[in-house]
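Exercise 3.2. Students should predict the tertiary structure of the chain below and write it as structure tokens, then compare their answer with the key that follows.

Predict this chain's 3D structure.
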Amino acid sequence: MPREFTRKDRVSDALQRELSRLIRDEIRDPRLTMTNITGVDVSRDLSNAKVYVTFVGSTSEDAGQDNTEILNGAAGFLRTRIASEMQLRIAPKIRFIYDNTGKRGQDLAALIEQSVYLDEKHKFIPDRTSVKFEEDI
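Answer key:
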């Protein structure tokens, strides 16, 4: 009977949980207090991991990029802690990537809402006198 999830998927999930805990509990930088890990992509040989992050309360993309650089600076420390916490032969090399899909989704939702509002505001409602019906002819 085949397994539902591959080893790569299981390691990705475990790495996401462990990194969330480590960032929350062991990194003492106040700029990283509200960090969300949205996904982890591990290579087939489990030697590299791309970690996608967002930051709650970050208003600009530049601040998100700066916070991602801080996390990339701490990647060696996090890799060491991952190696001691998880039973893996090789601890993956971690690279953090800023994930702006949430912000883009909010922007698109705002544009759709604005378009619907403007459409309703400028909706043409014909009155009875401007429309000729067959019975009037």
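Discussion points: The helical segments are 7-26, 61-73, 75-85, 101-121. Residues 128 and 134 are 13 Å apart (CA to CA).
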